[in-house]
Specification:
Radius of gyration: 51 Å
Domain GGDEF: 495-628
Largest sheet: 6 strands, parallel
Keywords: Membrane, Transmembrane, Transmembrane helix
Structural class: alpha/beta
Oligomer: single chain
Low-confidence stretches: 1-22
Pfam family, one: GGDEF
Transmembrane segments: 280-299, 308-326
Distance between the termini: 93 Å
Strand content: 5-15%
Helix content: 40-55%
Number of strands: 19
Protein name: Diguanylate cyclase
Number of domains: 5
Length: 628
């Protein structure tokens, strides 16, 4: 795949450097860029790769194994505890003993993750209520059962905060958050354990925490051992041995309810919500960067191979940066979503550069072949006038840049581009447009598309250079090179003309007597006097020194030539006052002429005869002066 810019592909070149004016870029690109942004927005909102991103994010976070908070203590009722202290879990009497023991240890907070919605007996329930009151509602929390109406007995509820300890997994079965946005089932247990605040809401679990490292004790350890409970945040729950639960932390085997609640509590205590928000904004910024990189790669790539290499390089970079967000910030990431944004913008931009949509649109209209539609895609938005011709030589498509030319010149423009069947012009001049000239490119071989490049300014420069090349610097008339060129063209064309050679008499004397400035002034005056006798179509040239040549077109009349020769002599014989010396000088001239004797006569022969005629005249004038 080659997406490099061909010479006529000005819209592609414009895209490649954001070229042209800002307005041109906006007009040409705002629709595809807007479409790409909308698609990327859908990717970000719909999150089609969410499951893949979660797995990558889970692996990156869990692998960090941050230490568990030692101030969080799990008391998990084990199978041995059940056999020793009651069935099916813990008798109400032994629970009272355990709560009194914990209260004596002066913990920071205690959450009892056991169902206390049914009474046992008035005395037993009263004893437990007294034990709970030793901690008070600020330091003890009681949980609801799966149903919102299954709340602890009022006898117990008045002494503790009501907490919603339901563990609700994400769609893939893993637990990454805890809690609900409603108070219907109670307040969030992690928020209460960490801060003491009674409020609902979801808490994100910091998967970096090594959940298996929390200290876990049995009931027997607490009742019969010397355990320091001062300042501890305690979670009392059943172990998975006696109460299997569906508590699954990502990238780990089944976890206990207590460890999940502990991870959530530590996440709140360490303000993981702020970490999560920072990670969100970092990921969002990275996705915006990915969109910009997709646009940049598609615009800058000159070939498909280069685009692939750039896309692969930037794709790997985006993946690495995503993983660094997980490791440095500690937040979940969305690498495939970021890559999706990058690829969406990349592909939309390539489609725009290749002009796929205009190509398909042209083809659907039915008046162009697939080859013409493919070729025309890059010319339609060109800054140069572009024309697509039919087999009959008519213009069937033109771009916006050609609108004015087609409107002014219509079919004449087509004839200039295609003067004859299968004959394509390389350049053209629009005489009706002040001589505006164009180079004509045919970039697509068999496809009749012409791209016009205005070279009027260059032609004017070339014309000025030609004039300087063929112009005598002193007199302003044509020089010897220009004279020869005009004479050769006249001989080739077969046009009628008379050739005059003029040699000044007395110039050397003036130049030697009064200096070169006087001699230059005399030459300029001589050229001016001769020019006054010329028609616009005639050519006057200084051939060198004090020699001049004249080509008079449109006649071969000998009588006219003799008469014109006499006029030249008379004009040059008029006395001239030199401004440089204030002297009056008089010079003469020897003049010879030649007329082509036959069509196609060699120019050199005509020059020779005119030169001989001039020298004969010069000799005659000399003899006349000597005789006088």
């Amino acid at each position: 795949m080659d997406i490099s810019n061909s010479p006529e592909q000005d819209s592609g070149a414009q895209a490649n450097n954001f070229g042209g004016t800002a307005l041109a870029v906006i007009v040409d690109w705002w629709r595809p860029i807007l479409a790409a942004i909308v698609l990327c927005g859908l990717v970000i909102v719909v999150r089609p790769s969410d499951s893949t991103d979660r797995r990558i994010s889970d692996r990156a976070l869990v692998g960090q194994s941050n230490p568990a908070d030692p101030s969080i203590l799990l008391i998990e009722i084990s199978g041995e505890d059940v056999r020793k202290y009651g069935r099916p879990a813990l008798t109400r009497e032994n629970l009272t003993v355990l709560v009194n023991r914990i209260a004596e240890g002066k913990p920071k907070r205690l959450m009892i993750d056991l169902y206390l919605g049914e009474g046992v007996s008035e005395q037993v329930d009263s004893d437990l209520a007294i034990a709970l009151s030793r901690l008070g509602p600020q330091r003890v929390g009681l949980v609801t059962s799966p149903g919102p109406d299954d709340v602890p007995l009022a006898t117990f509820a008045q002494h503790g905060a009501i907490l919603d300890a339901r563990l609700t997994a994400d769609g893939d079965g893993w637990h990454r958050q805890l809690g609900s946005d409603t108070r219907r089932f109670g307040n969030n247990p992690a928020a209460w354990l960490a801060t003491g605040e009674e409020k609902p809401g979801k808490v994100a679990l910091d998967l970096r925490i090594a959940h298996q490292d929390y200290r876990s004790l049995s009931v027997d350890d607490v009742l019969n051992g010397s355990v320091n409970l001062t300042g501890k945040t305690i979670i009392l729950s059943s172990s998975p041995d006696i109460a299997p639960t569906r508590a699954y932390l990502p990238m780990a085997d089944a976890a206990s309810r207590g460890s999940v609640l502990a991870v959530a509590t530590q996440s709140v205590a360490q303000d993981y919500a702020a970490v999560k928000e920072n990670g969100y904004w970092a990921s969002l910024a990275l996705q915006l960067i990915a969109i910009a990189l997709g646009l940049l790669v598609a615009l800058k790539a000159e070939t498909g191979k280069r685009m692939f290499l750039l896309a692969a390089g930037f794709g790997i970079t985006l993946l690495v940066v995503n993983l660094s967000i997980a490791t440095s910030i500690g937040s979940s990431i969305a690498p495939t979503q970021t890559l999706a944004c990058f690829l969406v913008m990349l592909n939309v931009t390539v489609v725009q550069r290749l002009k796929i949509i205009p190509m398909v649109s042209s083809f659907i209209k039915g008046d162009v072949s697939p080859e013409e539609a493919w070729a025309w895609r890059s010319c339609e938005a060109s800054n140069h006038p572009a024309l697509l011709f039919s087999a009959g030589g008519k213009i069937k498509r033109h771009n916006a840049a050609a609108e004015q030319l087609v409107g002014q010149h219509g079919s004449a423009l087509a004839r200039l581009c295609l003067p004859r069947y299968d004959d394509r012009a390389k350049s053209l001049v629009l005489a009706e447009s002040d001589g505006q000239s164009f180079e004509v490119d045919w970039p697509y071989g068999e496809v009749p598309i012409a791209v016009l490049r205005d070279n009027t300014a260059a032609e004017e420069i070339n014309r000025d250079l030609r004039e300087q090349l063929y112009k005598d610097d002193l007199t302003g008339c044509t020089n010897r090179r220009g004279f020869d060129r005009n004479l050769i063209e006249a001989g080739r064309s077969g046009e009628k003309f008379i050739l005059f050679f003029i040699d000044m008499n007395g110039f050397k004397q003036v130049n030697d007597t009064y200096g070169h400035d006087a001699g230059d002034e005399l030459l300029v005056a001589t050229a001016g006097r001769l020019q006054n006798l010329m028609r616009q179509s005639d050519v006057l040239a200084r051939l060198g020194g004090d020699e001049f040549g004249v080509i008079m077109f449109g006649t071969e009349n000998e009588r006219f030539a003799t008469l014109q020769e006499r006029r030249m002599v008379d004009a040059l014989s008029i006395p001239l006052r030199l401004t440089s010396t204030d002297e009056i000088v008089t010079v003469g001239a020897a003049i010879g002429h030649a007329i082509p004797e036959s069509p196609g006569e060699e120019v050199g022969e005509i020059l020779r005869r005119a030169d001989l005629a001039m020298y004969r005249n010069k000799a005659d004038l000399k003899r006349q002066r000597e005789a006088a």
